[in-house]
C-alpha cells in the first residue's frame, strides 16, 4: 500500500515538474519571437528601460507580428499597419478588452483607458465622447482654449524660464474646466500643481516594471505585506488618489451649495442633464472625472513640451509656420480656429511631434476575448496585443521614410486632424498611432488635437523658440532630443530654451488679448 502512495506521489511530482517546465514555452502556431526559458518565458529579456526601442529591434529580427511569453501569458506585438486594422479595427468586438491587472484594480475603480469593456466603461466612454465631440470642442469649448492659450503666451512673455509650469497649467486648467468647472489661474493653484502631482504619481505607479508581474505569477498575490512592498505602494497610491479627487468632489459640492452651477461634465451628471445608463458611486464619479483630467492633461502637456524642444532645435520649421501665421493674422491678432485652413503647417508640426516621440510609446494593451487566428498565427484567448507606437513610427516598412529625422513636411499631404485618419479604412495612409486604435482609441482625441493646435499656433505666432545659451561662453546649450523620463507617459527631461518675442507689436497684442481672456475666464475660478 505504501509503495502505491509513493508511486502516485511520484507521478504527481513528475506531472507538476513537466507542467512547470512547459510554462514560459512558446506554443505551436503562435507568432514567432525571441527564444524562451522555462517558467520565465521572455521576462528576463525585457529591459527595465527602453522597452519601446527593443520592440523595434525584435520586430526587425522576428517579423512585423511577433510574440513574447511571460510565464503562461502571451503578448502579441503588432508592428504592422494591416494587422492593427484587421484585428483591432475590423474585429474590435474581440479585441477591445484590457488586461486583468491586479495592481491597477487596487488603485483605480474603473478608469476609461484601463478597464474591461463592461457596462460602466461603455457608459463613461459615451459621456466622454459626447462631451468632447467635434461640435463641442469647436463650439462652446473653443473660447476656453483660445483664452487659456492667450494667458499662456502672456505668462511666457513675463516669466519664460517657467515654461514647463506654464504649459502644464494651461492644459490642466482647460481639462479642469471641462470636467469639474474649475480653472487654474496659476501653476501654484490646487487645480494645476496638485492635479499635476497626483496624475504623475498615478501614471508612475502603474508603469510596467513598477511592480512585479503579479497576474502572470498569481502566487505573488498571497504573499504577506512584509514580502510585498508593491502592494503597500499600491494601497498608498489608492489612498492618495482617492483623497485628492475626493477633495475635488468636496470643492465641487461646496460650489454647488452656493447655487453656482457651471457648464461642465460634473454638474451635468449631478443635475441629470447628461443622461447615463446606470448610477455612479461617489468613488466611481470621482475617479471618472479625475481620470479625465489626469489622462488628458498628462499626455497633452508631455506632447506639447516634446514638440517645443524639437522646434527649438529646428528654426527653419518655425520660420515656415510663421510665414503662414504672418500672412493669416499679422501682428494685431492671435490665430483662431477659423484660421485652420490657412495654417496647414501647424498641423504638420503637431503630427510630426507625435510621430517622432509618442509620449505613450507602447499603447496600453488590448486583450483577446476569445481564441482567434490571423493569417497562419494563433492568438489565444486572454493574450495581450500591443501597439508599439514608437516602433511603428520609426519603421521604414510602415511607411515612415528617414524616421529618425524630424521633418514635419512628411505630413504635407495629411491636411486633416488625426481622428479622420484613425477612422479611415485606408490604414496605409494613417498619420500616426499615438492615440491608439480600434474601440480603445483615445476618447479625448478631439480636445487633445484642438488644444495642441491652439497652443502651437499661438506660441509660434508670438515667439521665436531658441536653445538657451551658456552665460559664460555665449554658445548655444546642447538640446538632447532623446532625453525622456522612462514611464508609462514619457515626459521630456528638463531642458532650457528661450522664448524671444517676435516684435513689440506682438507683445502689445498679447497683453490686450490676455486681459480680455482673463476677464472671461474668471467665471471658472474657485471662489
UniProtKB/TrEMBL annotation:
Cofactor(s) required for function per UniProt: heme
UniProt signal peptide: 1-18
Keywords tagged on the record: Heme, Iron, Metal-binding, Monooxygenase, Oxidoreductase, Signal
Lineage: superkingdom: Eukaryota
Keyword Cytoplasm: no
Record InterPro entries: Cyt_P450 (IPR001128), Cyt_P450_E_grp-I (IPR002401), Cyt_P450_sf (IPR036396), Cytochrome_P450_fung (IPR050364)
Single GO MF descriptor: heme binding
Sequence positions that bind heme: 442
Coiled coil in keyword set: no
Transmembrane segments: none
UniProt record similarity statement: Belongs to the cytochrome P450 family.
Listed name of the protein: Cytochrome P450
Amino acid at each position: 500500500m505504501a509503495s502505491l502512495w509513493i508511486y502516485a506521489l511520484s507521478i504527481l511530482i513528475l506531472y507538476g515538474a513537466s507542467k512547470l517546465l512547459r510554462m514560459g514555452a512558446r506554443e505551436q502556431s503562435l507568432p514567432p519571437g525571441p527564444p524562451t526559458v522555462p517558467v520565465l518565458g521572455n521576462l528576463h529579456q525585457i529591459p527595465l528601460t527602453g522597452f519601446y526601442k527593443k520592440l523595434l529591434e525584435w520586430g526587425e529580427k522576428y517579423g512585423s507580428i511577433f510574440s513574447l511569453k511571460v510565464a503562461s501569458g502571451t503578448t502579441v506585438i503588432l508592428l504592422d499597419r494591416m494587422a492593427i486594422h484587421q484585428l483591432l479595427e475590423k474585429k474590435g468586438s474581440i479585441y477591445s478588452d484590457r488586461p486583468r491587472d491586479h495592481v491597477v484594480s487596487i488603485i483605480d475603480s474603473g478608469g476609461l483607458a484601463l478597464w474591461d469593456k463592461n457596462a460602466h466603461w461603455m457608459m463613461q466612454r459615451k459621456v466622454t465622447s459626447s462631451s468632447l465631440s467635434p461640435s463641442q470642442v469647436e463650439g462652446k469649448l473653443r473660447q476656453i482654449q483660445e483664452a487659456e492659450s492667450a494667458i499662456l503666451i502672456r505668462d511666457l512673455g513675463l516669466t519664460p524660464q517657467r515654461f514647463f509650469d506654464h504649459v502644464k497649467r494651461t492644459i490642466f486648467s482647460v481639462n479642469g474646466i471641462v470636467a469639474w468647472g474649475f480653472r487654474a489661474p496659476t501653476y501654484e493653484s490646487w487645480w494645476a500643481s496638485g492635479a499635476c502631482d497626483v496624475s504623475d504619481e498615478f501614471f508612475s505607479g502603474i508603469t510596467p516594471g513598477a511592480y512585479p508581474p503579479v497576474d502572470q505569477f498569481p502566487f505573488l498575490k498571497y504573499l504577506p505585506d512584509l514580502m510585498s512592498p508593491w502592494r503597500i505602494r499600491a494601497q498608498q497610491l489608492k489612498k492618495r488618489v482617492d483623497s485628492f479627487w475626493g477633495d475635488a468632489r468636496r470643492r465641487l459640492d461646496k460650489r454647488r451649495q452656493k447655487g453656482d452651477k457651471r457648464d461642465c461634465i460634473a454638474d451635468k451628471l449631478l443635475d441629470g442633464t447628461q443622461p447615463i445608463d446606470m448610477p455612479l458611486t461617489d468613488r466611481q464619479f470621482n475617479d471618472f472625472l479625475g481620470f479625465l483630467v489626469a489622462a488628458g492633461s498628462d499626455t497633452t502637456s508631455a506632447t506639447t513640451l516634446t514638440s517645443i524642444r524639437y522646434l527649438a532645435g529646428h528654426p527653419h520649421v518655425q520660420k515656415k509656420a510663421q510665414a503662414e501665421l504672418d500672412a493669416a493674422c499679422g501682428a494685431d491678432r492671435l490665430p483662431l480656429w477659423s484660421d485652420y485652413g490657412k495654417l496647414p503647417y501647424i498641423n504638420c508640426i503637431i503630427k510630426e511631434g507625435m510621430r517622432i516621440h509618442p509620449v505613450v510609446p507602447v499603447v496600453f494593451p488590448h486583450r483577446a476575448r476569445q481564441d482567434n487566428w490571423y493569417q497562419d498565427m494563433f492568438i489565444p484567448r486572454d493574450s495581450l496585443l500591443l501597439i508599439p507606437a514608437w516602433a511603428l513610427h520609426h519603421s521604414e516598412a510602415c511607411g515612415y521614410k528617414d524616421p529618425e529625422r524630424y521633418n514635419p513636411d512628411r505630413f504635407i499631404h495629411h491636411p486633416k486632424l488625426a481622428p479622420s485618419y484613425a477612422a479611415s479604412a485606408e490604414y496605409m495612409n494613417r498619420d500616426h498611432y499615438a492615440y491608439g486604435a480600434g474601440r480603445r482609441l483615445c476618447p479625448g482625441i478631439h480636445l487633445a488635437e484642438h488644444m495642441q493646435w491652439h497652443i502651437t499656433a499661438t506660441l509660434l505666432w508670438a515667439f521665436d523658440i531658441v536653445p538657451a545659451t551658456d552665460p559664460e561662453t555665449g554658445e548655444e546649450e546642447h538640446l538632447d532630443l532623446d532625453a525622456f523620463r522612462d514611464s508609462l507617459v514619457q515626459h521630456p527631461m528638463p531642458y532650457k530654451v528661450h522664448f524671444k518675442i517676435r516684435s513689440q507689436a506682438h507683445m502689445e497684442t498679447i497683453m490686450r488679448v490676455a486681459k480680455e481672456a482673463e476677464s472671461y475666464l474668471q467665471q471658472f475660478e474657485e471662489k
